[in-house]
Write a structure and sequence with these properties.
Largest sheet: 2 strands, parallel
Shape: globular
Radius of gyration: 16 Å
Order of helices and strands: HEHHHEHEHHHEH
Helix content: 55-70%
Structural class: mainly alpha
Number of helices: 9
Length: about 170
Amino acid sequence: MGVGKTTIGSEVAKKLYRDFYDVDVEIEKKYGMSVKEIFNTFGEEEFRKKEKEMIFKLCEQRLNIISLGGGAFLQSEIKERCLKDGIVFFLDLSWDSWKDRISMLIDSRPILQGRTLEEIEDLFHSRQKIYSLHHSRVETDALEIEEIANYIVDSIKLAWDLYEPHK
């Protein structure tokens, strides 16, 4: 949450000439309201159900670049599907860097609202454990968007060369 998945994912998609999907944005389009409004109107359970459905649909189409919401990996079925059918990049941002972004995030992230800084820090660290399963980890603290996107593109191209031999 708030690490820059949408911005970086969009940049990677441009560089690879692929379609980019931000799952939260796709769900917002479907409901015609923000994630915050969906949480308030229908509840988190309904949102997570729609999130899973959307991710599974997008995973059926090969070669998409998909940005998952910060809580998507809380669902083990989503995590397993993404690890099986895709290449999962964990954009790792330290707590010190992330907490500088809280003021920009708090209004649009229902999961942060009404929590103390200590509770938010606990949430941050508990989610780090959830993200520990991935194919590649990118430490983003000292990198610009372009550098992160280039690293991911280079990694994907290398993986393609290694695992998809040319005929």
